[in-house]
Amino acid sequence: MAFIKLNELELEVEDGIDVVEAARQAGIEVPHYCYHPGLSRPANCRMCLVEPHVFFPPAGKIVPDRQLATACTTFLRTVPPDRKLDGKYDFIVQTDSPRVKKAREDILEFLLIHHPLDCPVCDQAGECDLQDFSYRHGHDKSRYLEVKNVPPKKDLGPDILLYSTRCIVCTRCIRFCDEVAGTGELGLINRGSKDEIDIPRAHDGTPIQLLDNKLAGNVVDICPVGALTSKDFLFKSRPWFMKKANSICPGCSVGCNITVEYKEDGVYRLKPRFHADVNQYWMCDDGRLGYHYVNSEDRLQLPMKRVGDELVYTSWADALDIISEKLSSAEAESITIVGSAQGTNEENYLLGKLAREVLKTDRVGLFGRKPGEEHKFPQFTIEADKNPNTRGARNMLNGSSPVLEGEKLWENLSDAKVVYLVNGAPERPLDEDEKTALENVEFLVVQDILLSDVAQLADVVLPGTTFAEKDGAFTNSKGWVQRIHKTIDPPGEAHVDWEIIQQVAKRLGSDMDYRFAGEIAVEISQNVAGYQNATHQEIGDGGVKLQEGNDE
User: Fold this and answer.
1) Which helix (H) or strand (E) holds 394?
2) For residue 169, which of 117, 231, 99, 113 has the smallest C-alpha distance?
3) Which candidate, 177, 186, 115, 176, places its Cα nearest to that of 154?
4) What stretches of 335-389 show up as alpha helix (H) in DSSP?
5) Angle, vertex CA 448, rays to CA 447 and CA 453, nearest 5
6) Helices (H), 18-159
7) Which residues contact 135 (CB under 8 A, 6 or more apart)?
8) Are the C-beta atoms of 485 and 467 separated by less than 8 Å?
């Protein structure tokens, strides 16, 4: 540990930490643009200048160094005793001296020379570092009177626009494409005050290579100004009108930590949230842009039952009466309960209880999205399993017999008389063999969020909820148990999935009486191997790793 003096604070910090991070941990802001903790450090914006102190032998005292230093490349470490300042400090650094403040003002004046100052129409307004730092550290007016550069707006790819007039050439986006994605689509053209970010183009200006890798959306997140924008979010909402909640991306088994930004009428965008062991600072575009089904006008809002060849709307009471009558009259060995790799641990745990304790059947399966491609990048992996909770669902559904998956599941369903299936992946298609197996089921209950291929074959359809409309936990492929949080209300009369399962169980004589998902998590921690520390309180926003003893 290094012992430092930061302004007037005496601190112990880890060896190797830079001044930006050390100051942040102490609650001190060191403004910066080009620096990002997940990328290399070119120190080209110069906004993070600080004033280190050194020992000056002729005067026999400690004085400010002749040159200011960039905080992002000034690393703090323990020094030998004979080099300590004042006999005890490894470093002395000022982040708010008059020299530092004047340097920041000058740098901001240069950065704003060609900026259009179009905050009222910029998507980044309200969460823009250039806007915030100009207010806190800049001049109150510009002395620049000459004609500004006006480089063109550029379409960089399927979801990314570049407003070049706003760009401060921090190069974060270039370094991301080089270092994290490894695809290298972006670079600098021109020189001096006319340099611009761009993609490779032919002589006639047509794009040769688009910013079209599956991590491209991250360049919008890391842009400190309003230069890079998402077409998906463009002009949708001002950030101060949206609420935020921590959650987990449901797009694959990586379990990226995300922030859900929403209003009462739906989800507006998903952004990655830092987790050192899961996704670092990033997420893929499949997950980022895959939330639109949550806001779909086609969401199931009422239960449905089959009358003849059609599904018609009915009441919850009627739907539950039909289901309980069919389940109670069927032989246990003819009933199959199918959990969802899209569902939470809590939901699948209750499904397992419904199957084994209430219906006395060991025919328990698992349903979810079909595997896709795995994509590997230098610092990120998109996994082939496109379900967020395959591992957790298996853990919850496991009993005296293994969970049925793949071909074994469809073989089982082909001779089942009654099937209760929870989906949650409405875009998942059925092949002919799967469709035939479900058509042969005498009575099929499907719990879903849209009228999917599976739901269209059902005798009763129950409207459930998406990841954005409920609380619970997912377990990713590496064994991290992580929380999702409710952000918006379900549409119409759709119910939280574990509550639906509990209502079915109660109709069949069960004494289940959970009031919220956290109670189920407590029971999971007591009964499922590896989940001893996986209560909602202990999971928090950082997640917990499965303990030894878990089957996986």
Assistant:
1) helix 390-397
2) 113
3) 186
4) 345-353
5) 110
6) 19-25, 98-111, 129-137
7) none
8) no
Q: Coil, strand, or helix at residue 18?
A: strand
Q: Which of 549, 516, 292 is nearest to 426 (CA)?
A: 292
| 14-61 confidence digits (pLDDT tens) | 999 999 999 999 999 999 999 999 999 999 999 999 999 998 887 778
Joined together, the tokens standing for residue 303 give 């239960």
Q: pLDDT tens for residues 468-494? A: 999 999 999 999 999 999 999 999 999
Which residues lie closer than 8 Å to 58 by C-beta, 6 or more apart? none
| Consecutive H or E run containing 317 | helix 316-329
State the residue for tokens 């009471």.
317
Whether the Cβ atoms of residue 33 and residue 170 lie closer than 8 Å to each other: yes
Q: What is the pLDDT of residues 425-457, one digit of tens each?
A: 989 999 999 999 999 999 999 999 999 999 999
Encoding tokens for residue 456?
A: 């269209």
Q: How far apart are CA 533 and CA 527, in angstroms?
A: 11
Q: Are 330 and 416 in contact (CB under 8 A)?
A: no
Nearest residue to 543 via CA among 281, 261, 275: 275
DSSP state of 319: H
Q: What is the CA radius of gyration of the chain?
A: 28
The CA distance from 421 to 409, in Å, is: 12
Q: In the chain, what are the domains?
A: 2-104 (3.10.20.740), 146-241 (3.30.70.20), 304-545 (3.40.50.740)
Amino acid in position 229: T
Residue 58: CA atoms inside 13 Å, Cβ hemisphere, count? 0
- Between CA 429 and CA 301 the distance in angstroms is 21
The CA–CA distances, whole Å, from 237 to 9, 258, 262, 355 equal 40, 19, 10, 45
Q: Is residue 214 predicted with pLDDT exceeding 80?
A: yes
pLDDT for 550 beyond 60: no
- Work out the pLDDT band at 236, boundaries 50, 70, 90: very high
For residue 79, give both structure tokens: 């020094």
Rounded to a whole number, what is the distance in angstroms from the first to the last CA of the chain? 38
What CA–CA distance (Å, rounded) separates 151 from 195? Answer: 9
What sign has the CA pseudo-torsion 378, 178, 104, 122? negative
Q: What is the 3-state secondary structure (H, E, C) of 210-276?
A: CCCCCCCCHHHHHCCCCCEEECCCCCCCCHHHCEEEEEECCCCCCCCEEEEEEECCEEEEEEECCEC
Task: Please give the Cα distance from 184 to 177 (Å, whole number).
Answer: 5
Q: Which own/partner contact pairs does 264-268 have at CB distance under 8 Å and 24+ positions apart?
A: 264/488, 264/489, 265/295, 266/294, 266/295, 266/488, 267/291, 267/294, 267/295, 267/468, 267/487, 267/488, 268/233, 268/236, 268/237, 268/242
Q: Tell me how far apart the alpha carbons of residues 20 and 27 are, in angstroms, rounded to a whole number.
A: 11
pLDDT in tens, 139-152: 877 888 889 899 99
